[in-house]
User: Fold this.
Amino acid sequence: MQEALVFNLQKFSIHDGAGIRTDVFFQGCNLRCGWCSNPESQPMEPLPGEKVTIYTVPALVAELVKDKPFYDESGGGVTLTGGEALLFPEFVLALTHALHAEGIHVAIETAACVPEDVFSRVLAAVDFAHIDLKHYDDAKHREGTGIGNALILRNIAAALRSKTPAVVRIPVIPGFNDSPADMAGFAETLARLGATEVQLLPFHTLGESKYNRLNLPYAYEGIRAMRDADVSTFANVLEAAGLSVQIGG
Assistant:
């Protein structure tokens, strides 16, 4: 029987898709972003002392369906995130099918750094995709996340051509991807990929306490969280390139 490690079920979320949602956070990620707000999620196996739950698909569906009245009332559903949910494609596909059988909307939140065939199979199954693009430049992306962006860009282009609604998200990180040159580079890249809308996610420090608790180095210690106004120039550059921009998820 298929199983997956889940380190958090965040109920009543309003930031990762339409309506009231439950975010399912899968354990494990293949990127190593220095600003990650869930550093405990990065290893494929939980860090010592960290609580995770082993779910089968039926057990997870049974938990998620409890909040179906809230999904139905608000036009919400379930968002699969992490970590990186697409590292567990067979589980995600089975879970999506089971949730659809219950009449529940399913979205994914992904960095899209998985093989193209895996990405396309999951994309075709879900109802919506939020896709993070950390940097348009391959070398800078590798510097910030530990991996290049060529595969990610191919998957984003495929998603934007697909029948599944998808939106690109840019986590705006001070000193990493928020310079005027970066703004112009993102605008050109998104236009080339065929994007028509984008979400800017201002840098926040909500994960800083986790680094302290886990005795992990935090690359952004002492850097203040961004406000919406701090990314307004970025938004203006993207809008001038013809993109519809939303600040926040």
Notes: The mean pLDDT is 96. Strands lie at 3-13, 21-26, 53-56, 77-82, 105-110, 128-132, 166-172, 197-202, 244-247. The radius of gyration is 18 Å.
